[in-house]
Design a protein that fits this description.
This protein is mainly alpha-helical and 167 residues long. Helix content is 54%, strand content 11%. The chain has a two-stranded parallel sheet with strand order 1-2. Strands 3-4 form a two-stranded parallel ribbon. Helix 5 links the parallel strand 3 and strand 4. Helix 6 crosses helix 7. It is globular and about 65 Å long.
């Protein structure tokens, strides 16, 4: 849809993540569909990245979107994208509204079809300064709330509370 609209020159789709042998048929089917649409030259696939490759992959993005097929309980990839300074476009469901309302580091879209996702992503792709500002807010939020130290303090607080309610 975005390529057909033609408002974002040089648009590329980068797909990254784990790919098991069980995923081969699914991924091949997606790539066939993209080829049938004449988009093979605009798609790059990066399966099974190690940590350094994943960081480089995320840093190469303008925006990250992972539209899950189920109610995501958290979405670690959102935090990983923010840590890399990349804004996200996620469906307005599950944990995503809470994360994005709290951070201002991305946009929500109603999961009613591909047009809604394209409409949400296009302003970020068309305005790199906006995308960078949102990504910077995400990175700041990660450094503030999603560090090992913050997690350790939270765990200690839960342990102390649990100890207080013991008979």
């Amino acid at each position: 849809l975005l390529r057909r609209r033609g408002r974002v020159p040089g648009l590329r789709l980068r797909i990254g993540g784990s790919k098991t042998p069980a995923d081969e048929v699914y991924v091949a089917g997606l790539l066939e569909r993209l080829c049938a649409e004449g988009l093979a030259d605009a798609v790059e696939v990066y399966p099974n990245l190690d940590r350094d490759q994943k960081i480089a992959f995320l840093q190469s993005l303008t925006v990250l979107s992972v539209p899950p097929n189920y109610g995501e309980s958290f979405g670690l990839y959102v935090i990983e994208a923010w840590a890399a300074g990349v804004p996200v476009a996620q469906p307005n469901e599950a944990a995503f509204p809470e994360l994005l309302d709290d951070s201002g580091a991305g946009v929500l879209w109603e999961p009613v079809g591909p047009e809604a996702l394209a409409d949400a992503v296009e302003p970020l792709l068309a305005d790199p300064a906006l995308a960078r500002a949102m990504g910077a807010r995400g990175r700041a939020r990660v450094l503030e709330r999603f560090t090992v130290e913050h997690m350790a303090r939270g765990c200690l607080e839960v342990f102390h509370q649990a100890r207080e309610i013991q008979p």
